[in-house]
Design a protein that fits this description.
Largest sheet: none
Keywords: TPR repeat
InterPro entries: TPR-like_helical_dom_sf, TPR_rpt
Number of strands: 0
CATH architecture: Alpha Horseshoe
CATH class: Mainly Alpha
CATH superfamily: Tetratricopeptide repeat domain
Strand content: under 5%
Number of domains: 1
Helix content: over 70%
Pfam families: TPR_10 (PF13374), TPR_12 (PF13424)
Structural class: mainly alpha
Order of helices and strands: HHHHH
Organism: Corethron hystrix
Protein name: MalT-like TPR region domain-containing protein
Number of helices: 5
CATH topology: Serine Threonine Protein Phosphatase 5, Tetratricopeptide repeat
Length: 107
């Protein structure tokens, strides 16, 4: 599925980031934390490329990936990096125009 999407959209498209996030969740359920972390980091890299090009994206989805990344750092014993990603997620949720709710994240 990923290779088909990459052929259709290119490797740095927001749809690819969403697929990588979902694949990361699967790896996490299989307790493959390093593989999950790699998927989440790839997804965040794509969001960075999309943002640099000035294209719109969903802050909520990026925030979810930041939380997922933080959780993987926590599960692999890297609490300092985990906290950095949790803070970034909280900041993004707080700056989101459509957040509408309290500035909270679930970890």
């Amino acid at each position: 599925a990923l290779s088909i999407q990459q052929d259709k959209f290119g490797k740095k498209h927001i749809e690819i980031a969403e697929t990588l996030n979902h694949l990361g969740l699967v790896q996490e359920m299989l307790l493959n934390f390093e593989a999950a972390l790699d998927m989440y980091l790839q997804a965040l890299d794509i969001y960075g490329v999309v943002q640099a090009k000035g294209k719109a994206y969903d802050n909520g989805k990026k925030s979810d990936i930041l939380i997922n990344t933080g959780r993987m750092y926590a599960k692999t014993g890297n609490g300092e990096d985990a906290m950095k990603y949790y803070v970034r997620a909280l900041q993004l949720k707080g700056s989101s125009a459509n957040s509408g709710g309290p500035n909270e994240i679930e970890i």
